[in-house]
Fold these 2 entries.
Entry 1:
Amino acid sequence: MAATNLLPYPAATALHPLMDRFGRRHTYLRISVTDRCNLRCVYCMPPQGIEWKARAQILSFEEIVRVARLFVEMGVDKIRLTGGEPTIRHNITRLVEQLAALPGLKTIAMTTNGVLLMEKARALKSAGLTRLNVSLDTLRKERFEKITLRTKFDHVMAGIEAALDAGFQPLKLNVVAMKDFNDDELLDFVEFVRNRPINVRFIEFMPFKGNGWKPTGIVPFADMKRTIEERYSLLPLETSAAVAKDFSIKGFAGTVSFISPMTAEFCEFCTRLRLIADGSIKSCLLFPSEVNLRDALRDGTDDCELVEMIRNAVQLKMEGHSAMAELTTMDNRHMVEMGG
Ligand code: SAM
Ligand code: SF4
């Protein structure tokens, strides 16, 4: 691993953006605030569940904000809160408020399963959350229960409306497309956004240890697009998003996007880093190496040394991810811990 030559803090942070060995500059941090969840999506966590971390193993808000501040000083301008399920972390709106106060941070987003949005959407908006993604893989109640192993479909549907009412417009809707499971609902989701300011995003199913993934489980982006184009005319949108392919449909309030980590890699343009709830920095979702900051945060390590640890974590990033077959056997974390 390449060592980094540090300038004294704060010059080290301000002058040097977070570059990896391949010249990618990192401006987007995803923070998983908990490994716990109120759903049990079959593609995200193993059926037997995972061993949840004890409270003491999870970063406090103070620790999260300290690390986030360092990232922002090194050029991160977008943070997304995720989980597990971020809305179940006690006082999550307070964390949003604290992050919103960081000078230089332009966007604070959240990805949620939507179960608690009826109660929390307004408070999250008032706290300073700027963007919201809701994950929902089916518009059919019985199927929802098969995917999530929980009976919260009505909560999520009401949560989506509550989020729109609270002003999260456009709202993003994440749909993991799985062959012979929910791929017969692509057109229903498109219809769902006809009169709603929602960007529906179809995501290719990704392999993680123990999540039942098979190559035949993927619905390739090109097939999804072809199916939708049999009924609708998709007009390409010029957006700055490096990972999504975005389209509008004439007369629709909503838009349609595709995210294709499996069939059309976007590693070359990746600007993302991840801070996991236990304090580990992951430079790639699909690669196991990590640098843990928690002990350093608790033993008096100064900001300059933390910056060096963060830069070292970024140097661990590979040019691209491994072949699909290897991803299923790789000793990586479960998706529920990493937050997507
Ligand atoms: N609980 C929140 C939620 O569901 O939105 C945040 C965490 S969840 C792990 C983040 C995103 O990862 C969700 O949109 C979920 O659908 C997606 N996801 C989980 N497992 C996946 C997989 N195997 N392939 C693709 N996306 C996945
Ligand atoms: Fe929970 Fe989100 Fe994973 Fe579903 S996808 S189990 S809601 S963390």
Note: Residues 37, 39-41, 44-45, 83-85, 113, 135, 336 surround iron/sulfur cluster (ligand 2) (CB under 6 Å).
Entry 2:
Amino acid sequence: MDYFSRSQENIETFCLKLPKIELHAHINSSVSEKTFRELLRTRNIGNTQLTSLESSVFRPNEKIFASFDDCFDIFPLIHDVTNKTEAIYKVTSDVISEFESDQVKYIELRTTPREELLTGMTRRSYVDSVLSAIKDSKKKNLDIDVRLLLSIDRKSTVEIAWETVAVASELAAASDGIVVGIDFSGNPKINDAKDFIPVLAHAKSRGLKIAVHLAEIVNAQESHQLVELCPDRIGHGTYLHPEVGGLHKSVEFVKKHKIPIECCISSNLRSASVPNVEDHHFGYWYQQSHPVVLATDGKGIFQCSLSGEYILAAKTFQLNHDELLQLSKNSIDYIFADEETKKKLKFQWTEFSRSLSKSEQ
Ligand code: 5GP
């Protein structure tokens, strides 16, 4: 019997040691409780206020947020604490180390360049801090390859979106391959995504990859307009298929172009975006062999880990060890980095499979 024919190895143990790829992680939503507390302690605030802030951001309950809107109220609380470049540097560094400890071998972080008048942080100094943290993490010889997408927050202006694409274009050529693309995110109930389509189309024409949040709520027309942009990956896509209010033609387009879907199961459960795990759209796409990638979205505020997402998917959709390994390995094909990087990662996965077979002998 080979390794995969036997199912004795506990699924949790397997998912923890499985090499993984993280493609949907917002930096500020990924901040750990530990980092958040350390940042708070540098502030001159009393213990009561500190505890109250901590418990607003890191909620103990299973269903953390009462509604999808509710989670968008948390971001400003985190942003208030990460309002200077030193804090952004620390959060980015800590998030990278934490993912590395979870056997994540390649990660694409995403973050919205932010200006803070109070501290003098500019959108550019924000990006420079994130890049410094990523570059410094390379010097620490961590076993994780880190890339970056700059996010466009739809709550912001189209003018800022153009600026973000200009900065990403410049850095794509001048960041040693770290900046690879653009993410479109933010509260889907705010502003019309249509206004941002020319900006995203321009980003694509400049050779930047684009990952687009869409169909997080039922808004079939808007989702279809974004789908027709043919993004390189789709964030969530929760309400894309007709059974939940989406359009048949959107699904057809996504299937025809094999656009990978970034599935963040815990995030969707905890933000009350899907009612229960069995109905999560991961099942819909996975069962049709459509490209899907498991991701955490915000491991801090949604209190999850990438290993945990694999365990949850395994238990809910009855995935065995071999299927889990394939799922993580297939994710390599959906990364935004070059072919050389994909080749290196695939080699790591092959080595991992070999080590499993050896452990059998
Ligand atoms: P940051 O860009 O500050 O590093 O991460 C937090 C930001 O990411 C939020 O302000 C929001 O714009 C975006 N974001 C985080 N999680 C989600 C999500 O689940 N859906 C959408 N649409 N945007 C999100």
Note: The longest strand covers residues 145-153.
